[in-house]
């Protein structure tokens, strides 16, 4: 069976992608399967540029198709910040707790109607031959007043969805995987994915 390498060593993200790609006739590997592979510095000014940098580097380093993603949080009150700097918003080394604490500090006293935000994900699929396919997905919500929930990672405990009355971290992986920004980006890339690796999910109406 063919393999695709998801350009991440983050286990939470890896689980999410394995679920999102389930049904394709492909085995999903990650950077943990290639411990000697070094990722390039994320120098892009957009999520799409960084996703392409990662996918291209992995495809060249492994000789396998690679799926790179770059995603983050855009807070309207902060003019789109933290954006491409979401993972290291509070500095190095990257730390979810410190990132969330900094975000809450910057939004202290900001009224609810001005706490609108979105998660944005850009996906880049790069083949060993250099073919590149791009897709994006977004999820709209609000920044909660305090963290809630134990599931998920990153800013999930602060990202509140009014239609559910919960944060992403309170929804659980099954619901999150159906509506997240990564899920929507995968949906938008699905025509390419299902053409390259048709499987039992190729006719799924969700995709």
Describe the 3D structure.
- The chain has 207 residues and is α/β, with parallel strands linked by helices.
- It has a single domain (2-196), classed as Maf protein, CATH 3.90.950.
- It is 31% helix and 23% strand.
- The protein is built from 6 helices and 7 strands, in the order E-H-E-H-E-H-E-E-E-E-H-H-H.
- The protein has a 7-stranded mixed beta sheet with strand order 2-1-3-4-5-6-7.
- A hairpin with a 5-residue loop joins strand 4 (116-126) and strand 5.
- The protein is globular and about 50 Å long.
- Residues 202-207 have low confidence and may be disordered.
Q: C-alpha Rg, in Å?
A: 17 Å
CATH class: Alpha Beta
CATH topology, by name, is Maf protein
Question: Largest sheet, if any?
Answer: 7 strands, mixed
InterPro entries: dITP/XTP_pyrophosphatase, ITPase-like_fam, RdgB/HAM1
Protein name: dITP/XTP pyrophosphatase
Cofactor: Mg(2+)
GO molecular function, one term: ITP diphosphatase activity
Question: Which helices and strands appear, and what pairs or packs with what?
Answer:
Blueprint: E1 2-6, H1 11-20, E2 26-30, H2 47-62, E3 66-75, H3 96-106, E4 116-126, E5 132-143, E6 159-161, E7 166-167, H4 168-171, H5 173-179, H6 181-196
Parallel strand pairs: 1-2, 1-3
Antiparallel strand pairs: 3-4, 4-5, 5-6, 6-7
Helix pairs in contact: 5-6
Keywords:
single chain, about 210 residues, Maf protein, 7-stranded mixed beta sheet, 6 helices, 7 strands, about 30% helix, disordered C terminus
In short:
The chain is 31% helix and 23% strand.
